[in-house]
Design goal:
This is Rhodanese-like domain-containing protein. With 119 residues, the protein is an alpha/beta fold. 34% of the residues lie in helices and 15% in strands. It is globular, with a radius of gyration of 13 Å.
């Protein structure tokens, strides 16, 4: 992993944003469809935790060394990291999720490419 971890397999929103911008990590948003549509990080891939738990493959996971998982606050992303790790992925979760992402002033877009919001 190219950035430092906070606790066990956790990164800050700033570290996650930087890694995605540099192309060293894939940002995976595991929130539900309505949450994703209202607002998500640009460049993120979407796969709800329920589908991941049912065995769905991570879109684009083969292109990045690390899968950085985000949800609204951090609970679902921690569960997703456990699942991904069991499947052999190098996965880490974002401390504070999209709530902290927006508080840090990082970009959020809706499903049409406009300015998004976190619900």
């Amino acid at each position: 992993m190219l950035f430092s971890r906070r606790g066990h397999g956790r990164v800050t929103v700033t570290e996650a944003h930087r890694a995605v911008q540099e192309g060293t990590a894939l940002l995976l948003d595991v929130r539900e469809a309505d949450e994703w549509q209202a607002g998500h990080a640009p460049g993120a891939c979407h796969l709800p935790l329920s589908r991941l738990a049912a065995g769905a493959d991570v879109p684009g996971a083969g292109t990045a060394a690390t899968v950085v998982v985000i949800c609204r606050s951090g609970r679902r992303s921690q569960a997703a990291v456990r699942l991904l790790s069991q499947r052999g992925h190098d996965a880490t979760d974002v401390v504070g999720g999209m709530e902290r992402w927006t508080r840090q002033g990082l970009p959020v877009q809706d499903d049409r490419g406009g300015v998004g919001t976190v619900i």
